[in-house]
Amino acid sequence: MRSSVFFYPTLRETPQEAQIASHRLMLRSGMITQVTAGIYTWLPLGLKVLTKIANIVREEQDRAGSLEVLMPTIQPAELWEKSGRYHDYGKEMLRMKDRHEREMLYGPTAEEVITDIFARFIKSYRDLPKRFYNIQWKFRDEIRPRFGVMRGREFLMKDNYSFDLNFEGAKASYQAMLEAYVKTFARMDLTAIPVRAASGAIGGNLSHEFQILAETGESEIFYDVDYENLDVNTLTLDRLQSLYAAADELHDPKNCPVPQERLKTARGIEVGHVFYFGTKYSVPLGAYVMGPDNKQVPVEMGSYGIGISRLVGAIIEAHHNEDGIKWPESVAPFKVGLLNLNVKNQDCTRLCDDLYTKLLQKGVEVLYDDRDMGPGAKFADLDLIGLPWQIIIGPRSVGSGQCELKNRRTGEKIELSLEDALKRV
Ligand code: ATP
Ligand code: MG
Description:
425 residues, alpha+beta, Rossmann fold, 2 domains, 8-stranded mixed β-sheet, 13 helices, 22 strands, binds magnesium ion
């Protein structure tokens, strides 16, 4: 993509309304723009990141044996009356009426819709277990939308719902999701710590929140310092389970299983949440199956959310410096920024054009800054938008065949030949 064609309206000034780094950097790099309180348009640069995050989440959900569906954003009040949540949900729910005066709502979550689908189609224990998920916009009329996409009113969520014959099965689904979550967040270079959650409004017996450590986080958490050094690739299931168990017990500080020297407290951003809630929805919505003993039983359920749009902010909170974002490669909007220091110099531009073509041929995602601007502003923009690699080519490169390769994360710069730069990225 050529910068001259692309659209990323970067800002030099720090926007007044942004209190935390990720919000400031998302506005300044032209990833998002606010439409009204807590509601944003995702501009091309931001949308690329959002899509990459959604795809990582999708891959790990699929790998964990879940089936993707796409439920609507608008739901009928009727379903929520059946579960009893229509009146309980309160002002966070955006309610509306259609032309026939039927009460509708913009879905804040989808337990009712998916349980109703299950009830209509699945009748036998032989079809269990089943896990359905979707990646869809949700609306919650938050009392205080803030921190940009971190606490929006409209936000993108992955929500998965598991259906099992009994508690043992439900526990296995829960474990499968815990594992999928650890892998998902690790792929985004995030250390997400599962902490035992207080029973929330969805009302579960068992529930964990996944928290990213960040000073600007809204929750205070206690955790085992071992989490900071988890290597997901060598993680055994036993080890994972003992850490979860420890996280559970932390709820009860008197019997804390984590030795004092390993116990840490920090602030966290909640990026995911897993719940087991038994038959809370299956009973009122009629999701029963025929069991092996020919008796009808209500299915055991759980639900599993990931805040995909919130993750964009959370990743930036974890990966930035004063100059801008430092994207992990897996979610970067482009892998490489190619910077032409002097577009008026025809030889230099030819060199850049040539490298750009070669990068595209190799399938490398590259943003080519071919704009007619001073080098200072170009360097600043490239650091701000935080692509993992920068290749800098100037008039001197014409004679020497050398360019500069900068690693945005480490700040390390090296001089090397154009061919070597091509090989490196
Ligand atoms: P919070 O305590 O932050 O309000 P929640 O417990 O209400 O979160 P869940 O109902 O568990 O959230 O939703 C699943 C995930 O959706 C959360 O873990 C979070 O990452 C994300 N999420 C929830 N509310 C918002 C919001 N207003 N803006 C952006 N993401 C959100
Ligand atoms: Mg909430």
